Amino acid sequence: MTLKINYKKKQLKQFLYLGLVWLLLGVIQVWLMFDQWWLSLGWLILGLIYVYIYAQRKSNGYMTISNSEIKQNWWFGKRIPTSDIAEIKYFAGDYVVLSENKTIRINKEYLNEESLERLKERLEDLKEKLNI
Question: Transmembrane stretches, by residue range (predicted)?
Fold first, then answer.
């Protein structure tokens, strides 16, 4: 069974709105400075990056917990096989999953309420299953 932990809608909307603002600024600059359109490429690229991040975060979520691993869903996200988990603790408002080599911090501020409740249940199940 795979559990997908999602971002808060507010978190997602920030990236979407910032991306749209950057795109709008780029289009306005292209329109106002048509003879030097290449100057607005930075705004357009920045806007596209933010919209891409929004789409990626919306479709993949914050993290995925399966029976075999815990995985952060971002470009350089970490993976910890569930068999390697040494400790799961709550520290300074974040959940921390520790193995011998890696540490995953789960920031509660980014998670929507429904996903947070499912995360708590799943981490408790993992603690019981692994006798941590």
Answer: 12-31, 37-55
Rounded CA Rg of the chain: 19
49 burial via Cβ count (<10 Å: 0-12, 13-18, 19+): middle
Both structure tokens of 6: 């999602």
Q: What is the per-residue pLDDT across 61-73, written as a single tens digit (0 to 9) for each?
A: 999 999 899 999 9
CA distances from 97 to 1, 36, 51, 86, 125 (A): 19, 51, 30, 8, 13
Q: Please tell me the pTM assigned to this model.
A: 0.83
Asked whether the predicted pLDDT for residue 41 surpasses 80, the reply is yes
- Which residues, listed in sequence order, are joined to residue 95 by a DSSP beta bridge? 90, 106
